[in-house]
Description:
The chain is α+β, with helices and mostly antiparallel strands. It has 4 helices and 3 strands, in the order ααβββαα. α1 packs antiparallel against α3 and α1 (7-23) packs across α4. The termini are far apart. The mean pLDDT is 91.
Amino acid sequence: MNADQTPNSTQQERARWMSILAKAPAPELAASVRQFGELPSYLWLRKPETGLAMVRARTGGSGSQFNLGEMSVTRCALRLATGETGVAYVAGRDQRHAEWAAIFDALMQGEHRPAVEENIIKPLELLLQQKREQLQAEAQATRVEFMTMVRGEDA
């Protein structure tokens, strides 16, 4: 941990890159792995396994909670030969995606952090931001404005 980082900021940074790795589209993550080159050796702490997680939602976004349904989640944990531990939780059943996300999580905690941040995390983050903006633009294009006319006696 750097002198200017608090434990909380370090946790937030790790949560950021873990989120990016988990949400990255599988083909783009695979391309990042190919670009990175040979992955380091590691020991499985928990091999990729797929299970179900209950998804909860709120009425109107802020009301009472209810169980929306279940979704598949794949998780794993590993330790690099250099000692860093990586974990991943990925929506869906793609065990290879979870493995790669855990490897990059571990690499972000060691000496490879600058290279992984620049060559893997930032491009994936940019891609996710572009996809988010595209979805927002598509949703905005279908937005309907409603006007209400006020009658004279109601004014």
